[in-house]
């Protein structure tokens, strides 16, 4: 038994949620460094991982300071996406008339590149935080609406009829049946939305800004400072992962029955 316990502990550690992505990331970094050495890729095309780490270590205070405007714009845009997206989805799922008028326009709006209309926001609202928030909102809005509509439409009609037969009001039926059934799909859309909101905030900073990670990337591209640009990409990736993790934690608190069942399936497999 003394020989089995270390193996069980090691297996448990390797099956942890964060270990496998970390090991794969280490593999990617090693492959990146080997590819640069084997193919002799010049530094002005792809920087070495050591150079990127050196920039992260030396310029970390500046990168952290520049990440706050991007984080603020991302969170504001994401919250607006959830605040407006879920009620719009409720209207679309609850009314065929609203769906026939609104849903096709939402799909059509996604064919317009956001980076093409982002300069208009700068013209209308200036170089402040508002254009970045709007860009983040526009990219994060559609996934919330689509996922929420799917969730509300997939509610079992028999459950709704049973709740109404028990003299439940429309609001009570919505809280007891419709909303809990749609929450897993809503959170799936929120997870996609929060990552796209990061992209939207950076797009707004690309178009016109004097602060933020997008501004750092644009400045580093202009000076061919690729290690700084890659370091900024690392910051953006970390920001997206942290925000995704926060939404996932909220999901576990709000609908633990759904998350626990999904984990049982994963561990059983």
Give a structural overview.
This protein is an all-alpha fold. It has 12 helices and no strands. 84% of the residues lie in helices and 0% in strands. The radius of gyration is 23 Å and the shape is globular. The model is unreliable at 1-5 and 264-269 (pLDDT under 50).
Features:
disordered C terminus, single chain, disordered N terminus
Give the SSE map.
Layout: H1 4-14, H2 19-39, H3 49-58, H4 60-94, H5 96-109, H6 114-125, H7 130-153, H8 157-165, H9 170-207, H10 213-222, H11 226-254, H12 256-268
Report the average pLDDT across residues: 82
Basic shape: globular
**What gap, in angstroms, lies between the N and C termini?**
25 Å
Contiguous runs where pLDDT drops below 50 for at least 5 residues = 1-5, 264-269
- Give a quick account of the main beta sheet: strands, pairing sense, barrel closure: none
User: Which oligomeric form is depicted?
Assistant: single chain
**SSE succession:** HHHHHHHHHHHH
Briefly summarize what is shown.
The protein has 269 residues and is mostly helical. The protein has helices spanning 4-14, 19-39, 49-58, 60-94, 96-109, 114-125, 130-153, 157-165, 170-207, 213-222, 226-254, 256-268.
